């Protein structure tokens, strides 16, 4: 039979018989795929269905595609040690910039007292080249969004706090931080801080995301603390004392809680920055009480039906548990 007469649909037979076709078969194309595949899409389909590689003894075989990459570490919840165990965990949108800070009053601990209300704080670093500017690494990008949405343009240290996103994905360890005007260091790591409030889902569920307000909610204070003592502790921090202090009815002798009302929003924010996590001496133990503050959803301490809202007392009980 003449090869040139077109009798062979697939061309003339190979000199090696069917060896080549058996060893290197034509790829199977799914005829049900619509619309028609472009050359690039065709190669992607082949790569996903068939993965050739050299095996033992030079043999070729079919193997499964590589597994997908693991999810990034450092989610919204989880122990802070897992969020930044080696100091470099982070991700896109996990670092924010803070501008407009008073260099004579701002330090890492005071910023931590404010930003910890909206997520786990990992590291804080002040920039020596930009006075009044700091970088804050949060546990995840959601926490950064909360901070920017609730704290942008808030009065702080006599100025206005400006926040923005940073291009960096994490803050590196600073071997030799410089000293701030109040003798504190310009860099601090809060990875293992017990004052982070989103360490696990149980703790995170007890936090109510609330923007800055003139009323602060305090809890984890000594059970026998009086209004005069609390007002004196606040004044010792050179902060304007609250105009009204109300304690919630006690259901035990472990701690006390209540509300602090201020005339001005700036006074309330400054009180939270200076007095949040304030240690108060415990006469019955060598470990002090650590009073915690957060913004309250109440608009006023006094109401027609009572001195406080019932939901504030319920919130206090949930947090203390």
TrEMBL record:
InterPro entries: EF_Hand_1_Ca_BS, HNRNPL_RRM, Nucleotide-bd_a/b_plait_sf, RBD_domain_sf, RRM_dom. CDD domains: RRM3_hnRNPL_like, RRM4_hnRNPL_like. Keywords: RNA-binding. GO terms for molecular function: RNA binding. Residues 94-168 form the RRM domain. SMART domains: RRM (SM00360). It comes from the Eukaryota. This is RRM domain-containing protein. The lineage of its organism: Eukaryota, Metazoa, Ecdysozoa, Arthropoda, Hexapoda.
């Amino acid at each position: 039979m003449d090869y040139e007469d077109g009798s062979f649909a697939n061309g003339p037979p190979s000199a090696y018989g069917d060896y080549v076709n058996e060893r290197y078969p034509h790829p199977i194309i799914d005829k049900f795929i619509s619309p028609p595949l472009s050359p690039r899409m065709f190669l992607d389909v082949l790569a996903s269905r068939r993965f050739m590689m050299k095996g033992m003894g030079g043999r070729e075989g079919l193997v499964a595609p590589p597994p997908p990459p693991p999810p990034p570490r450092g989610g919204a919840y989880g122990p802070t040690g897992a969020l930044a165990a080696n100091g470099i965990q982070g991700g896109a949108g996990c670092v924010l910039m803070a501008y407009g800070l008073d260099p004579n009053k701002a330090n890492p601990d005071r910023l931590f007292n404010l930003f910890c209300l909206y997520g786990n704080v990992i590291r804080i670093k002040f920039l020596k080249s930009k006075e009044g500017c700091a970088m804050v690494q949060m546990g995840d990008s959601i926490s950064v969004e909360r901070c920017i949405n609730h704290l942008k343009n808030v009065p702080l240290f006599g100025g206005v706090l400006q926040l923005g996103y940073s291009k960096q994905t994490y803050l590196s360890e600073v071997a030799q931080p410089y000293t701030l005007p109040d003798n504190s260091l310009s860099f601090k790591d809060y990875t293992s801080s017990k004052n982070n409030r989103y360490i696990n889902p149980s703790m995170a569920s007890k936090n109510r995301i609330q923007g800055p307000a003139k009323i602060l909610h305090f809890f984890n204070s000594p059970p026998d603390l009086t209004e005069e003592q609390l007002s004196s502790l606040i004044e010792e921090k050179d902060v304007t004392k609250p105009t009204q202090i109300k304690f919630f009815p006690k259901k035990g002798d472990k701690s006390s809680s209540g509300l602090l009302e201020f005339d001005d929003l700036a006074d309330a924010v400054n009180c939270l920055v200076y007095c949040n996590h304030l240690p108060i001496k415990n006469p019955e133990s060598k470990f002090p009480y650590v009073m915690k503050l957060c913004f309250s959803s109440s608009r006023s301490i006094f109401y027609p039906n009572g001195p406080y809202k019932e939901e504030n007392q319920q919130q206090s009980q949930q947090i203390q548990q």
